[in-house]
Amino acid sequence: MIHEKVTSREALAKQDAADTLAAIRQHFYLPDGVIYLDGNSLGPLPWRTHLRLAAVLGGEWGDGLIRAWQSAGWLALPQRIGDKIARLIGAQPGEVIVADSTSINLFKVLCAALTMRPGRRVIVTERDNFPTDLYIAQGLVEFLGGAHQLRIVEREAIAEAIDEDVAVLMLTHVCYRTGEMHDMAALTAQAHARGALTIWDLAHSAGAVPLDLTGAQADFAVGCGYKYLNGGPGAPAFLFVARRHQADFQQPLKGWMGHAQPFAFEATYQPADGIARALCGTPPILALTALECGVDIALEASMDEVRAKSLALTDLFIALVDDLCAGYGLRLLTPRDHHRRGSQVSYAHPHAAAVMQALAARGVIGDFRPPDILRFGFAPLYVRYVDVWDAAHALADVLRERSLGPTA
Amino acid sequence: MIHEKVTSREALAKQDAADTLAAIRQHFYLPDGVIYLDGNSLGPLPWRTHLRLAAVLGGEWGDGLIRAWQSAGWLALPQRIGDKIARLIGAQPGEVIVADSTSINLFKVLCAALTMRPGRRVIVTERDNFPTDLYIAQGLVEFLGGAHQLRIVEREAIAEAIDEDVAVLMLTHVCYRTGEMHDMAALTAQAHARGALTIWDLAHSAGAVPLDLTGAQADFAVGCGYKYLNGGPGAPAFLFVARRHQADFQQPLKGWMGHAQPFAFEATYQPADGIARALCGTPPILALTALECGVDIALEASMDEVRAKSLALTDLFIALVDDLCAGYGLRLLTPRDHHRRGSQVSYAHPHAAAVMQALAARGVIGDFRPPDILRFGFAPLYVRYVDVWDAAHALADVLRERSLGPTA
After folding, report:
1. Residue B402: predicted pLDDT
2. Which residues in chain B come in under a pLDDT of 70?
């Protein structure tokens, strides 16, 4: 364990100097005076994004105009970037495509899953799933007129909730609040054993933890471009459809870019072969350009190194907070068990919102999540060991000052 | 009629010099050697888009990181730009929002319309509607299990197709193939008289022809950001919901940005008041930034001047082609009647694809649309009268050479 060796900030600085991922940090613009522990909300700006967007604006859109759809390869972008993301999540070429938002993509795969299990009427998910995932499922169930049911259970009750009525198990792989990680392979196997399909939301996983969608026999997945993939605010999202399901993949958002021949302008929809049928409207080229810059950087790192550093950073933070902040009312929500931890550390605290605000005033940026959660994301591509030291000390200072101050 | 005065290119150059919209052309980068008559597929790059995107990258995303959602006003962008677009289409503040793609937005308003007319099962549209509009309606009807029907009729039969079973009339205001424009107020009144709602696709209208959604009592509308609004390739789209319908507006794509309190992270969806409930996922900030640049330029022009110049440009092109290209097999598809014409001119020709290719080789860029259509868009914000002269002469040259050549 890293933290057992830690006696000083200097020791951690040496560890940063020896870090094989240190060079990748140089790809990002990270403002002075900021320790950024919120890359799980919005990743930072890669330097190259500026240059690449300028090139696309001037050389492609500007000079190419409508011709750039062909000459600059714009039409190929959703699948090209999808194939790159596939390498990050353990999927195969042709199984991932970039399109729309995570919410919209979740709607698509939910519709597809229900269509593939016509005799079953239940979607199972957990209470701690990200709200928009719950809303999308609620919206779909309501729209279908009430014959379907969204079964929301506690984390511990997921496996037993999958009965013969369940069409699909829909889970977020790493919980946005606690950072707890599901065992994708085990839960997928349990769902399959009962005849259900699975949908994995990889918003807090892709680019941060090793994933093996092929090995887990995952059916469908969706994920976010603007968190650990550093694709920019509101970046396009991705979706995964296992190749074995692609011929049966049907969903109601049938737009022209999912047509077998978009430029034949036929009056009747014919789905494209393969993952392209999951496209709907015209691809957003500027946003895709920015996303590809972030994805390209993530591909430079070995996911094993990323995972090792992620665990080292989160272990270190937990150990330092154990030492420095004992007695100030923090309650660790993130598992100490490596196998159940994503790339963030969360604590409950009765004054979480005020504590996070005080941290931000010191340049330590994390997130407050209602009702009482302090959330710190540790993106291994750019967070340093010294950042963890400084953040933990800043947290201790804030808590100490609160306990001494008049409003504590 | 402008063309009656035209005797020479020099006369047209004088007309350009006197054009009150000429200054607006300076806002766009238009490459040398290109006459761009395809702004109805993809508008050109505004200079300011480059600068503004660089500022958002560096000053907002780069320096602000997650904080920019508040500090840079990102969360307000969909409605801020929507309010600007409302001014271009004759809608009221709070009735338009920018989100997703035209196809996705069409799905939303179709679902809302069907929900508001529960006893009615038919969607009426026309055969010549843009294919993705037909596909979205087909996808929805199929997904609803077959109780609904998409009634596709010829243009002449639209009014009589609206019977007591019709929930919604869904039309594109200006036809993408022919440039023919519907009478929005008259058709909306006919639909309302029979108890049906209306959806107008403004893809080929917004920014090009005067629109009065309020005056027409339109119910719902969608539109495109990357054509006459010059928002960039795959720019976000917009949707309009008349204020009187907003409280009843329900659709299944219930994402967190349409929630009354997105950052309360509640487990149950509660729609936001007003047009914000039409949002779904996280807004795409880079793409929204580019779109706002284009919309701001469109707002600098008076729509009356835009319309007058649009008709003058299209009249001129038709007159020149009448004179120069007689006998080469062109058949005008666009109405000569001003009241039925959008901002494009289309011809059928047996070798349309080859003719358009030959024009492109001369720097005149229009579109080929299957099976046999030459399509020329005349965006009044940057197309000049001399461009029309040059394009018509290039077309005549191409047709003459084809008729003399071995493969004519």
Report:
1. 86
2. 1-6, 405-408
Question: Could you say which DSSP state residue A123 is in?
Answer: E
DSSP string of B324-338, one letter each residue: HSTTS--EE-S-SSG
Q: Is residue A345 predicted with pLDDT exceeding 90?
A: yes
Q: Which residue carries 């660089």 as its tokens?
A: B54
Please, which pLDDT band fits residue A146 given cuts at 50, 70 and 90?
Answer: confident
Q: How far is CA A2 from CA A63, A109, A210, A239, A315, in A?
A: 53, 41, 20, 36, 7
Q: How far apart are CA A289 and CA A333, in angstroms?
A: 36
Cβ atoms within 10 Å of A261's Cβ, excluding its own:
12
Instruction: Give the per-residue pLDDT at B6.
Output: 61
- What is the rounded distance in angstroms from the CA atom of residue A204 to the CA atom of residue A202? 6
Which pLDDT score, from 0 to 100, does residue A1 have? 44
Interchain contact, A136 vs B237, CB within 8 Å: no
| Tens of pLDDT, residues A28-75 | 999 999 999 999 999 999 999 999 999 999 999 999 999 999 999 999
| H or E, element range at B149 | strand B149-153
Cβ count within 10 A of residue A327: 8
- Please name the residue that has the structure tokens 């929930």: B167
pLDDT recorded at residue A408: 43
Which entry of A151, A309, A341, A375 is annotated as an active-site residue?
A375
Note whether B220 and B240 are within 8 A (CB). yes
Domain made up of A73-300: CATH architecture: 3-Layer(aba) Sandwich (3.40)
Topology of the domain comprising B2-47+302-403:
Aspartate Aminotransferase, domain 1 (3.90.1150)
CB contact under 8 A, B58 and A41: no
| pTM value surpassing 0.95 | yes
Q: Where are the domains of chain A?
A: 2-47+302-402, 73-300
Selected catalytic residue, list A28, A107, A220, A226: A226
Element (H, E) at B200: strand B197-201
Q: What is the CATH number of domain A2-47+302-402?
A: 3.90.1150.10
For the stretch A241-262, pLDDT in tens is: 999 999 999 999 999 999 999 9
Please tell me the distance from the alpha carbon of residue A66 to that of residue A59, in angstroms, as a whole number: 12
Name which of B135, B263, B282 is nearest A234 (Cβ-Cβ): B282
- DSSP at B65: G
Chain B contact set for A118 (CB, 8 A): none
Q: Does A407 have pLDDT greater than 70? A: no
Measured in angstroms, the CA of B151 and the nearest CA of chain A are apart by: 13
The answer to whether A2-47+302-402 and A73-300 have equal CATH topology is no
Whether A116 and A198 have beta carbons less than 8 Å apart is answered as no
Q: Does A69 sit within 8 Å of B131, measured CB to CB?
A: no
B323 residue type, one letter? D
The DSSP annotation for A195-257 comes to: T-EEEEE-TTTTTTS---TTTTT--EEEE-SSSTT---TT--EEEEE-HHHHTT---S---GG
